[in-house]
Write a structure and sequence with these properties.
Blueprint: E1 4-8, E2 15-19, H1 22-40, E3 48-53, H2 56-66, E4 71-75, E5 79-84, E6 87-93, E7 103-108, H3 112-121, E8 140-141, E9 147-152, E10 158-163
Parallel strand pairs: 3-6, 7-10
Antiparallel strand pairs: 1-2, 4-5, 5-6, 8-9, 9-10
Length: 164
C-alpha cells in the first residue's frame, strides 16, 4: 500500500514529501499505539486507597481494632498500611485539613444491617442526615434499592458501608 504524507517543519521551514512508505510503517505505528494503550490501561492493576490522618495512633486503633483491618506495615511518621480485603489502604499522616463533606471510602458488604450492628457493637457511631429516612442502624435505602450507612473515622473522614 502506497501513501503520500506531507511533513511540515525542519530547519528553515523545509517541507518534504514521503512517498511509498508502504504498509510496514503503518503496521509499526499501529503496534506502537496498541502497546502504549496497554501500558497506560489501569483496569488490570490493583487500586491503592489513600486516606489522610492527623492522629495516626487513633487511626491505628480505629482501622486495625475497631474495623478489623490487618496492619501490613507501620511506616510512621509517614503512613500506616492496612489490607482492606486485598486493597492496600494507606492512612497517611497529613498537616491539618478539613475532612471532605462526602464519602471518601466505602465497603460493599453482604448484609448492611448485620455489619452496622457489628460495627456499632465495636464502638462505631453512625451518622444521621436530615431529610433522609434512615432505620434504627442509620441505614438509608436509595430509590434504586441500595442500602447505605455512613460513619466517620477519628479524623472526621466520612466512610460508608453499602449493600447493593
Amino acid at each position: 500500500m502506497d501513501f503520500v504524507d506531507r511533513v511540515e517543519g525542519g530547519l528553515g521551514g523545509d517541507s518534504r514529501v514521503v512517498k511509498n512508505a508502504g504498509s510496514s510503517l503503518l503496521h509499526a505505528q499501529g503496534a506502537m499505539i496498541e502497546r502504549m494503550g496497554q501500558i497506560n490501561r489501569l483496569r488490570d492493576q490493583k487500586l491503592i486507597a489513600f486516606l489522610p490522618t492527623r492522629h495516626p495512633e487513633q487511626a491505628r486503633t480505629f482501622f486495625g481494632e475497631t474495623l478489623g483491618l490487618p496492619l501490613v506495615a507501620d511506616q510512621l511518621p509517614f503512613a500506616l498500611v492496612f489490607d482492606a480485603h486485598g486493597t492496600t489502604l494507606r492512612v497517611v499522616t497529613a498537616p491539618p485539613f478539613e475532612p471532605a463533606p462526602f464519602t471518601v471510602l466505602g465497603w460493599d458488604v453482604e448484609d448492611v444491617e448485620a455489619t452496622a450492628k457489628e460495627l456499632r457493637d465495636a464502638g462505631v457511631e453512625f451518622q444521621r442526615y436530615e431529610n433522609m429516612e434512615q432505620d434504627e442502624w442509620g441505614v438509608w435505602t436509595s430509590p434504586a434499592g441500595a442500602k447505605v450507612a455512613w460513619f466517620r473515622d477519628p479524623d472526621g473522614n466520612t466512610l460508608s458501608i453499602s449493600q447493593r
